Amino acid sequence: MTGRPGGRPLVPAYLSTGGVARPSRDRLERLSVLTGTGEAPPADLPAAQLALLDELADGSLTVVEAAALLRLPVSAVRVLAAGLVDRNLVLARAPIPPAEGFDPDLLKRVADGLRALKHP
Amino acid sequence: MIELPDLVAGALTAGTLSALALGGGLMRSRRQQAQQRAEIAALRRQLDGTLHAFTAEVGHLAAQRMPATARQLDRPHITVPGPRQPHLTGTPLGGALEDVLAALRVELTAQRTRIDAAAQAGMRGATREIQAALYRLQDALRALQQRYDDPELAQTLFELDHENEQSLRRAQVAAVVCGAWVGLAREESHLVDAVTGGQARLAGYHRVRVHNHLKPGTALVSHAVEPVAIIVAELLDNALRHSAPDTDVTVNLEHVHHGVCVTIDDAGLGMTQDERARAQRLVAGSEPILLTDLGDPPRMGLAAIGQLTRQFDLSVDLSSPSPYGGVRAVLLVDSHLLSRIDPEERPPAAGAPRSTRRAEPATSSPAHAYGTEPDDAASGAVSRHDGPRDAGGLPQRRRRTRATADSEPAPRRPARRPEEAAAALGALQSGTAAARAVARDGVPERADEATSDTDQTDYEGGAAR
């Protein structure tokens, strides 16, 4: 799982999606969290989608994490995930927004106040 | 006085006698001369005739027989005409004329080989450069694919990558035909990756259906990876080219007694007996390849396969028709070219089809053995004589085994519900807090170490996977 163990990959990324790079839904972002729904996959599921589903069987993953595990570019995983979401095999959740930055002035004033309390 | 007349008479007699004799000799010689003259005239006529015939024969040799002999070297169906006068065969002249043709043939063959070798060397040099440049381009394209994920850009990059793969394939095949090395060292790889990699090099790769019936982890030794990928790509290219665009080309990967068999079936028109024989001769790789034999534009695919089968001890068979009506190509990879990769440690590429034998490890546990063994035994037996049965029903049946294997993880799924993940994280937090509280109270550092250990493993277990 360390990047490209085999040097130049034998199987190019486009093969995994059948040459498609435009996902069927565009709400998936790099940090969208993918969770398997646990439904049994149909028999005609493409190999790459099955591989993604297998990775999700052990727990939720973000799109980038899945891309790293499958050794595929994010664009390909997005297409695969979108296909699985369409088939109701995977749930996608929007990325958790980063917490709002604190006001440094406020923090400084609090720290000053605390220091003032400590050394009266 | 008496004596004189005697003398005269004697002289007269002698004179008469000699005159008679002379006259007779003269007559005789006259006759002889006339005879000789006639003979000479006859001989001259005969000589003229022979000379004329000889000239005509040489003219025939130059105008008809020599060009035909030269043409026959690259077009064996051409027949060289015999001498103009059939009675010459067997005579010294006929033999000498045949010697001329034989010498011509030897010299032309030598020339042809020399010129072809020079052409091959030139092409080898050029294709090697092109191949290296295309690999650099491939690296650049793949780096871009990793870096940018805008769908429109990614689509373009995918298309460019595919175009590049196709150009690379052509350059590589031309190089291989000209006797060059495959141009790329690979490490041990899954066999299904090599097959899928070969598939990806073709324009019509969407039409290829790969059914992988190999044990997971079946791999190729490093030096066989690229040759197998090239051979599969060329066989698939032939299959795709000679079948209708709305039909599939089926690839089956199966174990056979002494190796692995890659069977490629198309539903095209098939080949005539002559074409089949020619193709079989080319892929066997037993004859040296001349570029002039490959036609214009040169059909390099089969010749490249021939080169590779000879160098790498692989074997390709095109002699049997496919049950789908087209051609069946069978690539046999001998077991000394096979190895094993742990599929858990290094899984095959995501795009490579899964093995239909995923229930394999279960055979070791006796509880499942009854469920899985018969199917496995059957597939092993059938793969030996992969006849129409294989093409008919088996893939479906195997697919069913995969479906059951896939439905297996379902019972394990609820363990990873979000609520449970939250509970696990909560437990982790409270555990960490408790341990920190203990550490703060002055308990030895070992406890702290232990905590950070569990912390790490929990973290890996929870988030990474």
Automatic annotation (TrEMBL), chain A:
InterPro entries in UniProt: DUF742
One family name in Pfam for this protein: DUF742
Recorded superkingdom: Bacteria
Full protein name: DUF742 domain-containing protein
Species this chain originates from: Streptomyces spinoverrucosus
UniProtKB/TrEMBL annotation, chain B:
Record organism: Streptomyces spinoverrucosus
Name used for this protein in its record: histidine kinase
EC number: 2.7.13.3
EC top class named in words: transferase
Reactions the enzyme catalyzes: ATP + protein L-histidine = ADP + protein N-phospho-L-histidine
Keywords on record: Kinase, Phosphoprotein, Transferase
Biased composition (Basic and acidic residues): 403-420, 438-449
SUPFAM superfamilies: ATPase domain of HSP90 chaperone/DNA topoisomerase II/histidine kinase (SSF55874)
InterPro entries in alphabetical order: HATPase_C_sf (IPR036890), HATPase_dom (IPR003594), TCS_sensor_his_kinase (IPR050428)
Record PANTHER family: SENSOR HISTIDINE KINASE TRCS, SENSOR HISTIDINE KINASE YKOH
Origin superkingdom: Bacteria
One GO cellular component term: plasma membrane
